[in-house]
Amino acid sequence: MILPIFAYGHPVLKKVCKEIPKEDKELSTLVENMWETMYNAQGVGLAAPQIGKPIRLFLIDTVQIEEDEEDFKGIKEVFINAKIVSESGDFWAYEEGCLSIPQIRGDVERQDSITIEYQNAAFEKHSKTFTGINARVIQHEYDHIEGKLFIEQLKPLKKRRIKRKLENIKKGDIKVNYRMKFV
Question: What is the pTM of this model?
Answer without folding.
Answer: 0.96
